[in-house]
Amino acid sequence: MDLVEARFACVTQFMLERRLTEVSKRLARVREELAVVDEQARALADAADDARVRALVSETPLAARESQEASRHAEAMAGARDQLAGQVRRLEAELNELLDKLVTGAGG
User: Fold this and answer.
1) Around Cβ 81, how many Cβ atoms within 10 Å?
2) Sequential DSSP letters for 20-62
3) Which range of residues forms the domain containing residue 81?
4) Helix (H, G, I), strand (E, B) or coil at 14
């Protein structure tokens, strides 16, 4: 029975380590994507602010439409950024759970 338990522990640890590697790689990719989207969101927010000021100054229907469109783009990118940030949080939590299981399994 000790041999079976030892093999089970090895397989379990191997599976945990494999999952840990997969989640770590996915987390790195999502963080890179978040950095790009974050930069784009800032640029779109700045553009929306500029368009809003131009609309206030010019008081034309065209400027107002451009301002609304720029605001919609900025809001959409902010939403995408929020989704990615949530994904990062979920992956970090999963990574922490896997690390806890790995440490608990090694200690117990």
Assistant:
1) 19
2) HHHHHHHHHHHHHHHHHHHHHHHHHHHHHHHHHHHHHHH--HH
3) 2-107
4) helix
Rounded distance, CA 39 to CA 46, Å? 11
For the chain, give the number of residues: 108
* pLDDT confidence of residue 1: 56
Structure tokens at 72: 């919609």
As a whole number of angstroms, the distance between CA 20 and CA 2 comes to 26
Is the pLDDT reported for residue 3 higher than 80?
Answer: no
Domain count, the chain: 1
- Cβ atoms of residues 13 and 105 within 8 Å: yes
Give Rg (Cα) of the chain: 24
Task: Write down the pLDDT at residue 42.
Answer: 97
Report CA 25 to chain centroid distance, whole Å.
13
**What digits encode the pLDDT tens for the residues 7-61?**
777 778 889 999 999 999 999 999 999 999 999 999 999 999 999 999 999 999 9
The tokens describing 64, both together, are: 């107002």
